[in-house]
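Quick start: what a row looks like.
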Amino acid sequence: RSVWLHPAERWHDPATAHGGAHDELRARIRDELRALARDDAVEVRAP
């Protein structure tokens, strides 16, 4: 289902915005950003 077909509230509600279905993808993105940061290609700041 496309992102724009979900109600906008879904992306702002903490209960649904960061569901576990994408934990692996988020971890892979985080790891890649950290690898890039070690190469000084990008700066990663902790939230």
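That is the whole record. The chain has one domain: 3-38. Residues 3-38 form one domain.
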